[in-house]
Write a structure and sequence with these properties.
With 138 residues, the chain is mainly alpha-helical. 38% of the residues lie in helices and 8% in strands. The chain has five helices and five strands, in the order βααββββααα. The protein starts with 34 loop residues before the first strand and ends in a 13-residue tail after the last helix.
């Protein structure tokens, strides 16, 4: 997916969903060998538990995305190429998501405080995103 980010495949497929009633979407992309990352599924646990569990089971069974140390970094869905690596960042997101889920939001409560927001808000305000300005945007 590209809008303001980077594509998820080497073919540089771009998906443009449009913007509600303001702007129509772009042409339907022809997807290439897109990459999925199992750790990203864990982040959706608070919102769609059953779908997450089903997705992870399919990543393991159908794409070989699970090894002796847990879920691998990523898998290209068309070719089935698995990045057989265990990255600390991936594992931290998996453990954090599981800890938050099993601990009834404990990780979230520990880090989402008014003090943290006050410290981060000025830093985030300096961020410049790579999204082109739209005509008539507010």
């Amino acid at each position: 997916m590209d809008p303001g980010g980077y594509p998820s495949d080497v073919e540089s497929s771009n998906y443009d969903a449009g913007f509600g009633d303001c702007r129509a979407g772009g042409p339907e992309p022809t997807y290439g060998d897109g990459v999925v990352t199992p750790h990203a599924a864990f982040l959706a646990l608070p919102y769609a538990k059953r779908a997450v569990v089903d997705n992870l089971a399919k990543l393991k069974a159908n794409l070989g995305a699970y090894g002796p140390g847990g879920f691998y970094d990523a898998v290209a869905v068309r070719s089935g190429t698995v990045a057989e690596r265990y990255l600390a960042l991936d594992q931290a997101m998996i453990m954090g998501a599981l800890g938050n889920e099993l601990g009834d939001g404990s990780i979230h409560r520990a880090f989402v405080t008014p003090q943290i927001e006050r410290a981060l808000r000025p830093l985030m305000a300096m961020e410049t995103f790579n999204v082109p300005a739209r005509q008539g945007a507010v």
